[in-house]
Structures are given as structure tokens and as C-alpha cells.
Amino acid sequence: MKLRTLLALTALVGLTSTLAAEQKPLRVLIVAGGCCHDYATQKEVLKKGIEARVNAVVEVAYDPTKSTKPVFDIYKNADWAKNFDVVVHDECAASVDDRPYVANIVNAHKNGLPAVNLHCAMHSYRWGKFGEPVKAGADNASWFEMLGLQSTGHGPQQPIAIAFTDKESPIVKGLADWTTVNEELYNNVQILTGKALASGTQKIPEKKDKKGNVTPAKEVTSVVVWTNEFGPNKTRIFSTTIGHNNATVEDARYLDLVARGLLWSVGKLEADGKASAGFGK
């Protein structure tokens, strides 16, 4: 009986390995470019980091423009999303307010394309009084509604202490809290439909201006990692505001987090935080 059981288990392991080997890789698109960040380097770090952790083929759409108005030709096509399983938004497009262009991006997610949003993606595609809490369905609300959280600015570059607050989420299960190098802590104007997974706390030192006026030191805490379900299809959206500097993006802990968020968004992350069979490396 023991021999039969052993043979059966061996056959099952062999079958599982075969199925995993035959699994087609995920098709991932990274969109990167725009103001204020070293996207030329970071897009390559993200591509390499994702492909090292996930059974995926990563394509990159890159605009070397250093302005807040990067334009990506791929977004101009109505069916731009058809060849991808998930898109990683890593663009900084704060001044892009072309309504049809933005609607074409958002509609792809509303119709079922998962997304991973990094850092300045949270401050993109905004107009009107975006510094105030947007109202559901408002003309300037669609991008924030996709994200599930509205953010409009950040403080100085100082280390951020990241604390994972939802210990049962497979995205962060087993991950250890850590403190970043100098980073930008994005504010939370309002949490819409997002579900917080981690908070970030930053100690801002005392500041004295040229006139001698002193701004006291303070401590600020914001949600820095969260998930969302967007639109009628409950499209899975993963976001983190962390990721300004190259040292952070290159950090294995950051890349692990992004990879898990990506796998979760496409439904290929198990409850224990490991990739589904055939999707991990």
C-alpha cells in the first residue's frame, strides 16, 4: 500500500511539473516615462525583476520625454489592451488631460484588464480641482476611481517605515516590514474603494526658512500599498506609491511586492503568497 501511494504521489508530482512547464507566460506591458524620475533605468529594472520572479514576457512602452505630458502611441488605439494580460502603469503624466485619450486607458481596465500602478501613476491623468476630494462619477474622477484612492502630492524625501497592515492578504503574507531609503510619501486625499495593505510613516524634520520661521518636526502616516476592484467586472487593481528612487526600485523587497501584486491582479497568486503552478520562478 505504501509503495502504491508513493507511486501515485510521484505520478502526480510529474503531472504537475509537466503542466507548469507547458503554462504560457503572462503577457505584461510596462508603460514608463515622463517627469521627475529615472524611467530609462527603472523600466529595465522592473522588466528584469518581474521576469525573474514571474513566468512572464514583459514588453515596454517608453516615452523619454521629461515633461509631465508624456504621450504613448499605444494608448491611441481603441484595442490597445488586447495583447496583454496586465499593464504596469509607471508613467508620470500629471498634465495629461486629454479626455478621450484618458478614457481609452481607463475603459480598458473597466472592461477587465488588470493593472499594477506604481508611484507617480497615482498623480497622473488629473484635471479640474483634483486637489479636492473628487465625487463619484465626476468628470475628473475616473482615474482615481480606477486606482481606488486619491492622492495629489507628497512631502520631502525622507525614509519611509513600511508596515504591512493586512497580514492575511496573499500579496503581503509573510513579508517583513522595512524602512526605505529616502522616498516620497504620497498623501491620501481620500480612500475610495481601495483596500489598504500597508501604511508608510515618515518623520519630517524641523524646517527653518530664510526669515527664521520654524516649521516643527512632525510624523506623517499614509496608506502606501492597496488593492481595488474596479468597474462592473471587478477588475483587480494593485497599487503602491513607493518607488521614486532607483535604490528602492532595485530593492528585492520592492520587486517581490510588485511581483506578488501583479500575480494577484491576474488571479495567479495562492493564499500562501506563492504563485499558482506554472506562473512562478
Give structural notes.
By secondary structure, this protein is of the alpha/beta class. The protein is built from 6 helices and 13 strands. The chain has helices at residues 2-22, 39-53, 99-110, 142-147, 246-249, 252-265, and strands at 26-34, 56-63, 86-92, 115-118, 149-150, 154-164, 178-186, 190-191, 195-204, 207-208, 214-215, 218-230, 235-240. The strands form 3 sheets. It has a 9-stranded mixed sheet with strand order 2-1-3-4-13-12-9-6-7. The chain is globular, with a radius of gyration of 20 Å.
Shape: globular
Helix content: 25-40%
Report the sheet with the most strands, covering strand number, pairing sense and barrel closure: 9 strands, mixed
Radius of gyration: 20 Å
Oligomerization state: single chain
- Spatial ordering of strands, largest sheet: 2-1-3-4-13-12-9-6-7
Uncertain residue segments? none
| Euclidean distance between termini CA atoms | 34 Å
Number of helices: 6
The string of secondary-structure elements, in order, is HEHEEHEHEEEEEEEEEHH
Number of β-strand runs: 13
Q: Overall pLDDT, averaged?
A: 93
Structural class: alpha/beta
* Percentage beta strand: 25-35%
